[in-house]
Amino acid sequence: MHGYIHYVKNNYRTAVIKEHIQQKYESNGDIKKNKGNHVRCDAFSIKEKKGDLFVGTENTCLAHCISQDVKMGKGIAVHFKSKFGGVQEILDQNRKPGDVAVLKRGHRFVYYLITKERYWHKPTYLSLRSTLQAMKRHALQYAVSSIAMPKIGCGLDGLVWERVREILTDVFKDTDIKIIVYEF
After folding, report:
1. Which pLDDT does position 85 carry in this prediction?
2. CATH superfamily membership of 45-183
3. Widest CA span of the chain, in angstroms?
């Protein structure tokens, strides 16, 4: 981050980059011109790591998959329910599969990716893509820089991580949001 200053303009993370740094990255297509000397950095990344999703991520937004009925009775959802509560807040948002429910906790957002109607149903890759797009819109609107999550949809829901990772990449590739995926 040396050599440029981050600030928010028009709900997008933008950067003012010194002339020599701008020229260096422009040739690689790593930045997109916005207006005047403002540019948007495309520095999307997915990092996979082992560890506890809830340790050391106090200022990072979090995300995980749930059903529309907001049961959260198994898997990592139990930990989210215990740590953040908000079941009625989520229900009051009246989100459908393909939408995202959002809780504000401290200085971060907790994203509840609604991928199915009932807890015993299985999600589809289409519902996952749709809810990730909804999360992306919210994250861009609020200048979110990083989101930590488990291997979403791949535990009890049974989706294949390689395909989920491709969808994550496709949805977020045109942003500068960092995705950190935790494996327990």
Report:
1. 97
2. Leucine Aminopeptidase, subunit E, domain 1 (3.40.220.10)
3. 55
Q: 10 Å Cβ neighbour count for 8?
A: 10
d(CA 134, CA 136): 5
Average pLDDT over residues 6-26: 36
User: CB–CB of 167/123 below 8 Å?
Assistant: no
Nearest to 75 by CA among 166, 163, 184: 184
The band of 46, judged by pLDDT with boundaries at 50, 70 and 90, is very high
Cα angle: 68, vertex 130, 109; to 5 degrees: 70
For the chain, what are the domain ranges?
A: 4-41, 45-183
- As annotated, the active-site residues are 116, 157
Task: Grade residue 42 by pLDDT with cuts at 50, 70 and 90.
Answer: low
| 159, 116 contact by CB (below 8 A) | no
Comparing C-alpha atoms, which of 50, 47, 41 is closest to residue 174?
41
